[in-house]
Every structure is written in C-alpha cells, then in structure tokens.
C-alpha cells in the first residue's frame, strides 16, 4: 500500500480497530496494528498511551526505550513525571498542525517550575533533545530556543503604579483605539493621530488567548512616565514580536544619558533594558517567524538592572543609577508590533 486516501472521519473508536503505521518515513510501505496493542504497556519497555478521543486530549507517557511516532491533528501532551534521571529524549516535529506540551517537569536548569506553568515545544526543523540530568538541576533542552516556558503573570497590587490591561479594552476586532486606559492611576496612553493608532485584536496570541493591541510601523501612544525618574522600578510585559527588526515596547522618544528609557528588542538577537548610555542587553535566539508570547520582567533595583524572560533571569548587572528624567514617554515607541501588558 503506497497511498492512504482521506476518508470521512468516524468518531467511534474501539480497541479492536486497526491502525496503519508507517515504520520508516522513507519507505512507501505501512504496517497495521490493533489499538489495543499500541495503547497498552508493552513488556519490553515500550510505550503506554492514554488517548481520550472525545475530549481531543492526547496524553503520552514515555518510558525507557520508547520510540514513538504520532500523527494526530490534536495537541500532544508528553507526561515526563516518571522519566528516570539520566534519560535523554529526542523529539522531531514534521509539521506545525499541533502543539507538543510537556508536563510533569518540576525543574529546568535548576529553576523550579510551578504547576501553573506551561512548557511547550516550538516547531523547528531540527530535533529537540530533552535531557533529565538529575533531581537538583532537572531538565535541559537542546537547543533551548526550541522550548517555550510560559508562567502566569501575577503582579501585586501593592505599589502597582501603572497598568495597561488589554482585557479592559472595549473594541471590535481590528478596530483602531485612540486611548489605552491605565487602570491604576489614570495615566492613560493616547494617540490623537488616527494613522498612528494601533488596533485591538481578539485572541491576539491564538488558541483562545486574551485580546491584545497590535502595533505596526510608526504606531505609538503618548504616555506619562515621569514618575520613573529618581525611582527604582519594575516593568512587566506580555508581548510577541512579528518580525526580526528593532522593536522597543515602552520608554521615551528622545533624551540623553539616563534620560531615555528603551525596553524591547534592540535587534533580532538582543533584548534590552536601556537608560541611554547605561544599558543592559540580553542575547536571545533569532526571530523564528512564529507568534510566541513572552513574559518579560525588567527592573532597576538595589541589586542593579535585571532582565527575566518567562521567570528566568537571563541578564543582570550591578549598576543602580536611576533615571534622572523621563519626558516624552511612549508606549510602542513606533517600532514594535505586538504587546499586551497585563496584571
């Protein structure tokens, strides 16, 4: 058999049904196996699979010696809870029609992973190797750029000074918005020039996500950031870029040393917390032409400047010099595409 036609889908699934399995993608031949034989624990250290067909969830438990090829239009969840220390798992995606979500991971590179954190693999043309080193360091991903770790962003109400929350925007899909309201102290971001107004987009990150604000070209908003001068600060941002160019997210349109904050992408492979001639840069992977939301937290504190991506510190210094002036504040700065700032 060299071809399989697209027949109408039948929703009734039985353990006695036959599946057609392609053992080697380079050989135009297929094997057939019963569901009951594929989806049960094998005696030689094979695989155990639980497939809840009606709900559309696929849970895969990997054991020693597992060698599994899955072709499904649904997302795949790999449960790594009981994978022993020293294990290496290599995963290769052949298409982008579904997501691979990793569960059962408690540490990544020594950093604790909470239950409400989601880890998923980005589509890549090169394989991803998952290495469970030991209980103290946990898992390593090679290359690390193939993996996204999303932790929920939760900011304390105490001393929260300014908040631009996209869920408070009342607008139609792709409608231009003249003002994005600050829900804490009414330091709203506004733009009177309609050609420079960004658009509200429903489910901006896809997969049923919250709505957000889409910035293109020179679109930006005037905003009061003067309260940052002479103060320590922490800024949290949820965003996803759509190109590989310079893309600042929040800061000032102009200024001198420690008078011009720029937070965002300095270029394709650098994210910056810049106070102008007093900058902290973090190296990042190149833009992969996919919309991957990222949580950035940048701060200038008594420890110095820090940049965290999805809860993991990726750059720091010991420079504690404050911003001395914060005129001409901008949200967007005219050069980034997607941002949603949420509590």
Give the low-pLDDT segments.
38-58, 334-343
Percentage of β-strand residues: 35-45%
What is the quaternary state of this protein? single chain
Largest sheet composition: 8 strands, antiparallel
What order do the SSEs take from the amino end to the carboxyl end, as H and E? EEHEEEEEEEEEEEEEEEEEEEEEEEEEEE
What sort of overall outline do the alpha carbons produce when their principal axes are compared? globular
Q: Strand order across the biggest sheet?
A: 14-17-18-29-20-25-26-27
Q: Give the distance, in angstroms, between the N- and C-terminal Cα atoms.
A: 55 Å
Strand element count: 29
Give the helix level as a range of percent.
under 10%
- Kindly name the structural category: mainly beta
Quickly count the helices.
1
Alpha carbon gyration radius: 24 Å
Mean pLDDT: 77
